[in-house]
Amino acid sequence: MGDHATIRNAAIRYWERRRIAYNAALVLPALLGYGIGGGISAAVGDQRHLGVGPVAALFFASAIAANLCFSFGYALEFWFGTDDPNSRWPRFWRPMIVVMGTVLSMLLALAGGRNIGWLEYAYR
Hints:
By secondary structure, the protein is an all-alpha fold. It is built from four helices and no strands.
């Protein structure tokens, strides 16, 4: 039986070091989606229905939701994490979860940015 405090501290250290890179990876797809959504739906003479404040609030809410989703990595860590040196979790599965989760989140950020762009120029 392993030392739970050591496993917990190692898990927190691993995931929190990757949180900033995760958030940085989501900025460009979100802004690209926003440009696509606002650029496609905006035509000559279209008026913006949202100001800068509501758009910033929507991006902030999306960032909070993205960080909540990132925190589900802890659930996987505490279910599958171990201090066994022969375990494949720290060497293979954990990095794979980070990469796959980041790629999926980038796709969701692209879609979320597009939706915010569409909301800004919503048809009324």
